[in-house]
Design a protein that fits this description.
Elements (H helix, E strand, L loop, with lengths): L12 H30 L4 H25 L5 H29 L9 H24 L2 H8 L1
Helix pairs in contact: 1-2, 1-4, 2-3, 3-4
């Protein structure tokens, strides 16, 4: 009986690291959303608005997770462009606009480092750094070569 070998494409370390960074970015986004939701509930936000936001974010983060897991991780070329367009431009811009706007309207002395503020800042920092790392690793020479094969 003849043995059949299946060729398995092994991704380079940079592609695996990019996958991890994209997962970290999505996870940080989920964590930020959960924190924001809990704060909104605490502040008495209308339930209908919260349900709509949860539904939208569930679809968004679920879809991004699927793209990273089912496509990017396996070297499907369009997935890296989709992640770059959605998370690397629009997503990164939305992550940075809030802090930048706050900084332009306040002085550092206005900071109130409560535990919630520190948690928000840590999550946002992790989120931003994960996206930047994912972008750099996604377009690393070895990752690019792997996506092209």
């Amino acid at each position: 009986m003849e043995s059949t070998r299946v060729a398995v494409r092994t991704s380079p370390l940079t592609a695996r690291a990019a996958t991890g960074a994209w997962f970290l970015a999505v996870g940080a986004g989920v964590a930020e959303s959960i924190l924001g939701l809990s704060l909104a509930i605490h502040d008495g936000a209308p339930a209908l608005g919260l349900v709509a936001q949860v539904a939208l974010r569930t679809i968004l983060y679920g879809g991004l997770f699927v793209v990273v897991d089912r496509y990017f991780r396996h070297g499907v070329a369009w997935s890296r462009w989709l992640l770059t367009a959605l998370l690397g431009t629009v997503g990164l811009g939305s992550l940075l606009i809030g802090p930048i706007t706050w900084l332009t309207n306040h002085s550092p002395g206005d900071l109130s480092p409560t535990p919630v503020f520190v948690l928000e800042a840590v999550l946002r920092t992790v989120h931003v750094l994960a996206v930047i790392a994912a972008l750099a690793l996604t377009f690393h020479r070895d990752t690019t070569r792997w996506f092209r094969t």
